[in-house]
């Protein structure tokens, strides 16, 4: 494999740390740039011999200066939009862990991808799985894509119970080890909602051909049902190093330290439909996706505000969905023609959600 220079954005988060492990295990990979939102990077820069480092601010300057072959965008939230659009527009391979940027930028990102003509490799485990099952086949060969959800820590809680769950309980994910924002999103199923919209844009499929099923052990990451009646599934222990390694070493599929799937003690795979009453954010995401325009951007923005408020213990668990539903009912949702209009739409939705919080 030829030398590959990687810009790692979100280097101090959970994906960032695991990516550094993967890169260290592959001599052909090197880090040419590191970025974080607020954490210092001096130590990491010395350890990995990285010249281009940035804490906060507009990451496109860092990307221009460091000239990466691959951008691994593991920023959390809308803050990752600029880097996603930069990589897609410039035809630089984008390994995308920052699903929020694709959800929010949607049509703008796809247009930039078409102009740039580079690779867009999902690092989200479900989407990496779909990408691998598809093997580049066109959307018309697909009957439906099925994304699996663990169901989070509250899969078996009643709606009444959910009124009083704590931040610590919500942060205790049963199968995946991840950062706080995505862990809360997994508990509310907003994460699966974001992934539904992400899949729509990545694989060019209408929403009625993207399904979600709850699968508590997270061994099956996704399935693709094809038009000939065959269904392909992607299995493995839940470990983000697999989709990270797949994306940064594509198309080589290099070895990882993850243990192989073991059936010797038997294994049962269970699936159940998601409950729309206890987890309304999945329905809200689907509706926002189907309405199009900047509704997905507003879904993401209001969800970010609500999750931050929940983590600060300002609102309860069920208030997250209420805040998002309220914001979605009040935004105009008109399509964004450029990044500045998108930033405006994001700010509008944030303003509505924050205003509602302040009034509560
Ligand atoms: Mg995922």
What report would you give on this structure?
This protein is an alpha/beta fold and 360 residues long. It has a domain at 4-124 and 240-265: NAD(P)-binding Rossmann-like Domain (Rossmann fold). Helices cover 46% and strands 15% of the residues. The protein is built from 15 helices and ten strands. The chain has helices at residues 14-24, 42-47, 59-66, 81-90, 99-116, 125-134, 159-162, 167-170, 180-188, 190-203, 241-249, 280-291, 295-311, 317-330, 339-359, and strands at residues 4-9, 29-36, 52-55, 70-73, 93-96, 120-122, 142-149, 210-214, 220-226, 231-235. The chain has a six-stranded parallel beta sheet with strand order 3-2-1-4-5-6, sandwiched between helices. The chain has a four-stranded mixed beta sheet with strand order 8-7-9-10, with helices on one face. Strand 9 (220-226) and strand 10 form a beta hairpin. It is globular, with a radius of gyration of 19 Å. The N and C termini lie far apart (56 Å). It binds magnesium ion (MG). The site of magnesium ion has 4 residues, from helix 6. Residues 124-126, 195 line the site of magnesium ion (MG).
In CATH, the topology of the domain at 4-124 and 240-265 is named: Rossmann fold
Which segments are poorly predicted (pLDDT under 50) over 5 or more consecutive residues? none
> CATH architecture of the domain at 4-124 and 240-265, please?
3-Layer(aba) Sandwich
Number of helices: 15
Would you list the SSEs in sequence order as H and E? EHEHEHEHEHEHEHHHHEEEHHHHH
Superfamily (CATH H level) name of the domain at 4-124 and 240-265: NAD(P)-binding Rossmann-like Domain
- Measured distance between first and last alpha carbons: 56 Å
**What is the class of the domain at 4-124 and 240-265 in the CATH system?**
Alpha Beta
Largest sheet: 6 strands, parallel
